[in-house]
Amino acid sequence: MPAAEYRAYAIRYGHRDAVPAYEAFHRPHAAPPGGMDYFVWLITDGRTNVVVDTGYGEAEGTRRGRQFLRSPDRGLAELGVDAASIEHVVLTHFHYDHIGGVGLFPNATFHVQEREMRFYTGPGGALPVIRESIHVPDVVRLLELNYAGRVNFVDGDAQIVPGVWVHQASGHTPGMQFVSLATSRGRAVLTSDASHYYANIEEGNVFNTFVDLAGVLRGHQRIRELAASPELIMVGHDPEVMERFTRVAEGIVEL
Q1: Rounded CA separation 143/154 (Å)
Q2: N or C: which terminal CB in the chain sees fewer CB atoms within 10 Å?
Q3: pLDDT at 2
């Protein structure tokens, strides 16, 4: 494990009041209490800052019936971080609620899985049921950033900065990736949508949006293998994140 020791913060920027059970779980299950929270994440050791995902834009979130609680850059500012200073942003996948805020980071390089870009700019991404989860202007913006030299393509696992890694977990989307980081308590994992809710990974009952069911389950196993303990796993959309970790500000918790 590298000498670097990071802290991770979940910043809640959006919310959905209710999620039907059939959407949150592939097998019969009660609807998730508390609906769904939407997060971006900050990883920092006080010198190096890495942001994970950028949230949805207010107009697109509102169109889809989601609450927009604050712009993610405002949440970062509450932690003393200027979005314009961020050099590294990991985009875990291309769904609308993860790539809609790339414009908030004018000096960042965006780290994505190559197969994610290939899929959503190819024939598969245009299929109606697949297209429902993306906002086309966001994908077009990433193409523009690629031509501007600001997209770093990853194929599989990679180290973004010393002590922060991405890991491919194809399943929810073809190029889904999650993030692990070195902490004082061992390696922690930010799952993003590799596991939306704790019940997904803890019960093996996957979120019911996927391109590869077996791939989602393999991703769950990889998360468990990498995390130093279950308490160091922070999932992607569960309101329980706000209860399991330490509150540091309104809508912000620290792992």
Answers
A1: 15
A2: N
A3: 46
Region 31-49 average pLDDT: 97
The set of residues, in sequence order, having a beta carbon less than 8 Å from that of 158 and lying 6+ positions away, is 111, 165, 166
| CA gap 191, 223 in Å, rounded | 7
Distance CA 96, CA 110 (A): 16
Query: CB burial class (10 A; 0-12, 13-18, 19+) of residue 225?
Result: exposed
Q: Quick count: other Cβ atoms within 10 Å of Cβ 229? A: 10
Instruction: Name the average pLDDT for the chain.
Output: 97
Residue 215 exposure: Cα atoms within 13 Å on the Cβ side: 18
pTM, rounded to two decimals: 0.97
pLDDT tens for residues 162-217?
A: 999 999 999 999 999 999 999 999 999 999 999 999 999 999 999 999 999 999 99
> What backbone torsions phi and psi does residue 243 show, to the nearest 5 degrees?
-100, -30
Plot region of 23 (φ>0 → left; ψ -120 to 50 → alpha; else → beta): alpha
CA 70, 72, 75, 77 dihedral sign is negative
Domains annotated on the chain, with CATH: 7-254 (3.60.15.10)
Position 3 scores a pLDDT of 56
Chain position carrying tokens 């949230």: 55
Which neighbouring-strand residues pair with 41?
10, 52
Give the span between the Cα atoms of 7 and 19, in whole angstroms: 30
CA distance 29 to 173: 23
